[in-house]
Amino acid sequence: MNETLAYYNQNADAFIEGTQTADMSEQYRFFLKNLSPGGKLLDLGCGSGRDSAYFSSLGFEVTAVDGKRIEFKVSAGDEKGLIGEGTHERFIVTNDRFLAKTAKKLEG
């Protein structure tokens, strides 16, 4: 395993804990002004999925890839209460598998 993934696997929980609730609004505004509404995004090194979840909620089709399997609960709600909830997972992806999935998405 390369050193970057080894480091991430050892420190992922602490990194996620420290960044999951970070205010990303300024970064998101900068990024959004350069995107076409409803476009496709590739989130490499997606970590906890924070950014992928945000852009998915805006209607973007997000493909998220990370070097570690991560599982967490997600939920959505509005002023009337809970809309839905589920489990979000990320998995280690091999380069060949990733390239094949990316090519398939680009075709469709």
Notes on the protein architecture:
- The chain contains four helices and four strands, in the order H-H-E-H-E-E-E-H.
- It is an alpha+beta fold and 108 residues long.
- The strands form two sheets. Strands 1-2 form a two-stranded parallel sheet.
- A hairpin with a 2-residue loop joins strand 3 (70-78) and strand 4 (81-90).
- The longest helix is centred in the first third of the chain and has 17 residues, at 3-19.
- The N and C termini lie far apart (33 Å).
- The mean pLDDT is 81.
Q: Could you spell the SSE succession in H and E letters?
A: HHEHEEEH
How many discrete structural domains? 1
Decide which structural class fits the backbone: alpha+beta
Principal-axis shape: globular
Q: What level of helicity do the residues show?
A: 40-55%
The profile of the biggest β sheet is: 2 strands, parallel
Share in β-strands:
25-35%
Biggest sheet strand line-up: 1-2
The beta-strand count equals: 4
